[in-house]
Amino acid sequence: MNKVILVGRLSKDPEVRYTQSGKAVASFRLAVNRRFAKEGEQQADFFNVVAWQKLAEICGNNLTKGRQVLVDGYLQIRTYDAQDGTKRYVTEIIANEVEFMGSKPNNTDSTNNHADIGDELPPDEDIPF
Fold this sequence. Notes:
Blueprint: E1 4-10, E2 15-18, E3 24-33, E4 44-52, H1 53-62, E5 68-81, E6 87-101
């Protein structure tokens, strides 16, 4: 079974592109804190996340740097030939679902009054798992 569930914060705004056939694809990096760190030092891992079609458009329109999200998807490793002729490997998370968590960053438009999924969840420190 290939299943990945991550909770983290976007390290920058999502980048949305469109394929030649018109399908939307969004990519972003997710910073995920490690559960255990050396001597109280917080460490994070950075994962590349890709979302397709309607989910890509939703991510592009609603997510910004610093926003906390839960990503449910699967791990994919793909290869391509670089311009110099070498084979390159890319590891990324393909998102099936993205849930918005926590509150929106302060720099968002305050006229949008709807609540996002997960707004009622406590901060990471209060979650017992």
